Amino acid sequence: MKKHLIPIVIIGATVMVWLIFYRDLPGKIPVHWGTDGADGYGTKLDAMLMNTGMMILLYVILAFSPKLDPKKENYKYFQRSYGIITYCLLMFFFFINIFTILSGLGYQLPMSHLVTIFVGLLFIVIGNYTNSLKPNYFVGIKTPWTLSNETVWKKTHRFGSKTFMIAGVLLMASAFLPATLLTSVMIPIILAIALLPIVYSYFIFKKTVN
Hints:
The protein is mainly alpha-helical. It is built from seven helices and two strands; from the N terminus they run H-E-E-H-H-H-H-H-H. Helix 4 packs antiparallel against helix 6.
């Protein structure tokens, strides 16, 4: 129960903030933003249920995945890292909820820039702990080559750790660019961190096997 305390507090705080400001929010509030500002609206009830529901679903998945993993015995070796990653993901959504509420209350927030900064920060934190992940089927860089060879897993996650952290720094720096340039900068960075570790794991596997 102790390990569930922090996630429950984060989710509970999110729900509490919604309830505190719910009456002050207009019937419809911004729920989606583009480079030019809010471009999608929904009812405040839908926004509250959708945003808090996503947090609850995310935590349920993260909490129960280790129990379903065929390699569940490995989780004890990176339990702390897994917990910190879980907390950070929930905190990320907590702030998204706060920004949504503030925007609904009429505050003009630079959402594209704020989200970019927080995504970058999230990547840095995840990258910092990626290196400590042990082979499993739910978290980490899971390719046919990392899952079939522990050495490949270790080397790929060491590489992925650096890639995530560099990408995080670049994303945070890009948040200071004009909003119209953010998308063209973010997409290549995200594609790079998605593809580079996969390609790296393949070549490391070939090198290790040979």
